[in-house]
Amino acid sequence: MRELGIGLIGTGFMGRAHALAFNNARAVFDLPLQLKLVVLADADGERAERCAKAWGFAQAQGDWQALINDPRVDVVAITTPNHLHYPMAMAAIAAGKAVYCEKPLAVNLEQADAMRQAARAAGVITRVGYTYQHNPMIGLARQMIANGELGRIISFQGEFSEDFMADPASPWSWRCEVEHAGGALADLGSHVLSMARYLVGEVVSVCADTQTVHGQRPVVKGSETLQAIAVDDQTHALLRFANGARGTVSSSWLKHGYKNHLSVEISGTEGTLAFDQERLNELRVYRTGQKGFQRMLAGPDLPGYAAFSPAAGHQLGYNELKTLEVQELIMAMAGQGADGSDFDDAWEVERLATAIRTAAREERWVRISEVNGEAGA
Amino acid sequence: MRELGIGLIGTGFMGRAHALAFNNARAVFDLPLQLKLVVLADADGERAERCAKAWGFAQAQGDWQALINDPRVDVVAITTPNHLHYPMAMAAIAAGKAVYCEKPLAVNLEQADAMRQAARAAGVITRVGYTYQHNPMIGLARQMIANGELGRIISFQGEFSEDFMADPASPWSWRCEVEHAGGALADLGSHVLSMARYLVGEVVSVCADTQTVHGQRPVVKGSETLQAIAVDDQTHALLRFANGARGTVSSSWLKHGYKNHLSVEISGTEGTLAFDQERLNELRVYRTGQKGFQRMLAGPDLPGYAAFSPAAGHQLGYNELKTLEVQELIMAMAGQGADGSDFDDAWEVERLATAIRTAAREERWVRISEVNGEAGA
Amino acid sequence: MRELGIGLIGTGFMGRAHALAFNNARAVFDLPLQLKLVVLADADGERAERCAKAWGFAQAQGDWQALINDPRVDVVAITTPNHLHYPMAMAAIAAGKAVYCEKPLAVNLEQADAMRQAARAAGVITRVGYTYQHNPMIGLARQMIANGELGRIISFQGEFSEDFMADPASPWSWRCEVEHAGGALADLGSHVLSMARYLVGEVVSVCADTQTVHGQRPVVKGSETLQAIAVDDQTHALLRFANGARGTVSSSWLKHGYKNHLSVEISGTEGTLAFDQERLNELRVYRTGQKGFQRMLAGPDLPGYAAFSPAAGHQLGYNELKTLEVQELIMAMAGQGADGSDFDDAWEVERLATAIRTAAREERWVRISEVNGEAGA
Amino acid sequence: MRELGIGLIGTGFMGRAHALAFNNARAVFDLPLQLKLVVLADADGERAERCAKAWGFAQAQGDWQALINDPRVDVVAITTPNHLHYPMAMAAIAAGKAVYCEKPLAVNLEQADAMRQAARAAGVITRVGYTYQHNPMIGLARQMIANGELGRIISFQGEFSEDFMADPASPWSWRCEVEHAGGALADLGSHVLSMARYLVGEVVSVCADTQTVHGQRPVVKGSETLQAIAVDDQTHALLRFANGARGTVSSSWLKHGYKNHLSVEISGTEGTLAFDQERLNELRVYRTGQKGFQRMLAGPDLPGYAAFSPAAGHQLGYNELKTLEVQELIMAMAGQGADGSDFDDAWEVERLATAIRTAAREERWVRISEVNGEAGA
């Protein structure tokens, strides 16, 4: 069986999530390629060593460029802070490697465009970590929609809200910087925009409202020195889809009580479905003729679930969605097309976010096609 | 004790709801005035007779003008189709009577303005049937917000969706006519706009999107003759409030699976509350420091509930919200200020709906102050 | 139309609930008899006067025997404390009047048996206030079961728990006296036993465990003088039904967080249904082949609901269940058989409760047929 | 760092779950011992080879005795069918190895007793896969109870119901054989009995009712040849705890609509908590003074959760509970006491199940101390 060498950059939460996912994908799926965890890189070489050992990587590296250049590495997985996605992905593409990058793809649309153009030109496979879409319940939702089980789709209501910045004493971080693709829309909203495209299709125009509620935050936790904040705390938008559906999207990192409230409700001429990531193993579905919503619980009739458990109700966790994402990457590497988000998809999501920001700033409807976001534009 | 004579026009669902409410208010509350159910009018005099008997009215009438002129009548309750609200209310005001009118106040903003101006000039008490606000749980929500228990309010998300028009075979009715204040926004959305004002305060500007999904419907059930439909099936809007809060409002009568989904979620700097009319005896509340949302169940610590039951969990129904509305009307008649919606409030709601329609038609943000909607304007 | 004269004894919460129900039944239903609210009795004659006026009774009485003797009274409604049910009902039966009595029927099984024997001998119609059964959703559940939609019934799990006595400082009341049919089983559990019979059928044997957790309570609120308590705070039982189904019943008035948690879950060979009085307008149903439970919301397809609202989702409250109970009483009085609980049913419920207490006391399985509970036995 | 060699027997669903858990424990926790996945055994040696490769074991084996004898193996993990637990565990104990065995410990109480006696005598560490207890939310529940946050515990209601045998056409399997510890009580109910002990403490007496609803099943799927079935399809029991609490336990594999409905509700003099495995990341808690139940969502304030995600709401899945179980095993191996179920605990659970079966068969209350279940007794 052909080997597939993995090089992973980054050892934070997302680095570990990738490592777990590669390990588990190997154990759980009957993969067409033989995964090799070749090298793990972190600027802190000692940390890289320690993590490589714990996570099953054959080698550690302090230098990410060396990882990319390593001939045994076929896929470069990037889990570093956002501003590093661009240089690392571009280097990997230049080296002819596949790239598996965390979201957001880049810190601005021009970078993102350059990256997708480069990937296309080089013919390399790319994937971006819009992990929530790999939930088998989302796959089921997509299939139901595609099969017409809800009829013609007419509305979409999406939200991604959490409360981790609700306390005004929550300090500044890179997530509060425009230059690092910060703000609630980029950090959280992008997931629900991606979900909107994945489930309903392309958006053609938007109108929006963004707001910075807490214009200053401590520079570090507990400090009395305040830092001005320019990114959005909450964003609300109206969406029009190419297929005629209409809807709204909201995102906030100030909404008390919510921890991972990525919710979508999609309604068609023959039914409605609703999903909330806080109950990721459930899908609520109503179809014409039913007496009320059915609460469906994930089970082994869905292949993505069956991989982890033969019994309904056992439930998947977030890390297993990551494993499903990795599986799709590997299937793509084996030429067995899977449907994850590639750089083109990720660019479309960021273009949509850019359109939303423009619409909010200029207080008008913006057609997505207005935003070409090309590198150099 | 001073008597208060009630004249009720209309014997449909809403007429009966009023009749029940007057009867029950008398039984349930220790009222400062002695209610007399004087006369019930319906164009169908025989039906008026029959209903008067069943509902405890002393007399029946085929002629609503005679009811208004009856010197024993102090309050004229109007539950007729929307286009009759204007002539009836104007006649009642001219006769110096208090008016208790179902929503919407009128079929256009100019009529509504004329009505409120006339009521002001005549100094008569008015009330409009935004019944859902009289829910003790909504009263509790309002009080919590007013007390600052959620901190400064920063977001509002409201929706009123049902599915009674979801089937394209659902026929045309007066609800499908612009001239009769038809459409999902007027029929359903107005309730959530009223709730937005009641709970969060004045809206200053809106942007919106309305859509007619089913442009034709059978003229009557089962007919193959189709009637063109111009009113909205669904509307989505962005709201900016005077106090700085931002949010969205949606309404639809096409959303499968929902029967009375009037929901609001209001978030502040120190907490969030959520309500859904489909579970009208519950309020979900999260405040800083809690581990998760509390599901509060209506109980006798709320006076509006205690009137009906000494025990928590017994639950109120819709008709009891109507009784609470009637109680507030009577308290106002006794000079003991209560807080229901009067003609000024109802006009503000319709002005807001008008602004939303304008914003949608002209595809731009509209300041509410642009819409003067004055009679003759 | 023939008149039906109502005499109501008692002006507490239940007295008022009856009064509201009689008034509303008249307004809401097209009744075959003409209801007359003839006389209201209360030992406190002044209070009787005041309430009679507010509730629409033609006359007030301080003497309940006079009410019973009043030739205009056809139905005697009894809402007094439990120990008065027996003398009042026996007097009413002796006078040939129909009796509508609150639950429990009596303070012991012998009294209850004497009452049902007397009612049979006199041929009078009787009804007992097991109000929760009149919920249209319970009617729907019963119909589904009767139609075989769940297949053969194999399990029943019922509970009625509240927390109004959870605080050990909650003082003694007559509900704490065996002689007044006190305790959690009699006060709450009897409702779920009645529901078990109504939905699944006769119970043939039981085993049980009862417990007094707080053996002493203040004689009055705030007092340091404690009163010994002998009635059960919580009871758990195993049930075997005549049709082969098995199950459990629990009741407690100490269970924190619950206000009206009368819940039943019934499972058959082809499906399961679940109900909780704290969400009285909902029924959760699963049938073979479904993907998950459907949450059904009460609507006008159920006649008992349609009487109050033409629109689904408007929701009924507790007082409307009482109105439905009254309607069934009136239909029975008109010879148009309805299915409320009569004295025989109520006796069966108390016999079942007696069997449970015996089983708990003697720590053994008890066949219901062992408990004849005959007067004088 | 000292090495800890793992030998795993079995490659079914549970074998893989163990393998995943060992791999992930290594990646996720900072363990005091260095895990080595030494050898994987399966009677089908070829399958063992394939799985060993996929799951990261250094070697495969067709002979489990050889695995036990392998000097590099310190812990023998047993995931084979129930009847093999006894010989394998006894062999491992004889070899002085720690044993990590799936539940049930054995196919009868005598075997189980012999196993725990042997383990004690040999001084080896043992663990049994009552995996659901390792949920951080259950840990939180236990801690709240231990801290007295619910006051004195007075009631326990537990259930474990699924519907995988609800269809009478579901064929016979070893789970239908008494000799293989089959039946709903052993298969499902044992988990909730274990949970009862873990959260509330020892049970002192029981009364119970078991029932075989479908007395015959096809010998294999689709066959018309039927096999008589003697094990219980559903069991209901009353429990009395040593600390005075009372309650019920139910288990069924016939209850339509449920997939993994392991639920517990525990009530004390100051509060109530409720958990359902179908929403394993949630705990509902009510404490005196609250307005309603709080729905708590798992988050990184719980160490067992933080190991997998730094963010609340991400959610754990079943396989991660297994990883937590493995971590506790390893901590125990390192002499850093953790609190999983050992053979003594597992024997107590089976003793309790035996008492329940005895109580059902003999239709009487049974004291747990009556059941000595000693080997040879």
Question: Which short descriptors sum up this protein?
Answer:
17 strands; 6-stranded parallel sheet; 2 domains; alpha/beta; Dihydrodipicolinate Reductase, domain 2; homotetramer; 10 helices; 377 residues; Rossmann fold; oxidoreductase (chains A, B, C, D); 9-stranded mixed sheet
The CATH topology of the largest domain in chain A is Dihydrodipicolinate Reductase, domain 2
* Annotation, overall tally of beta strands of chain A: 17
What Rg of chain A, in angstroms, do the CA atoms define? Answer: 21 Å
Residue share in helix of chain A: 25-40%
- How would a textbook summarize the main sheet of chain A? 9 strands, mixed
What strand line-up does the widest sheet of chain A have? 16-15-14-13-7-12-11-8-17
* Architecture per CATH nomenclature, i.e. the level-2 architecture of the largest domain in chain A: 2-Layer Sandwich
**Low-confidence spans of chain A: pLDDT under 50, at least 5 residues?**
none
Q: Give helix and strand order of chain A, one letter per element, not per position.
A: EHEHEHEHEHEHEHEEEEEEEEEHHHE
Report the mean per-residue pLDDT of chain A as an integer: 96
Give the CATH class of the largest domain in chain A: Alpha Beta
Keywords (chains A, B, C, D): Oxidoreductase
Organism (chains A, B, C, D): Pseudomonas trivialis
GO molecular function, one term (chains A, B, C, D): oxidoreductase activity
Protein name (chains A, B, C, D): 1-carboxy-3-chloro-3,4-dihydroxycyclo hexa-1,5-diene dehydrogenase
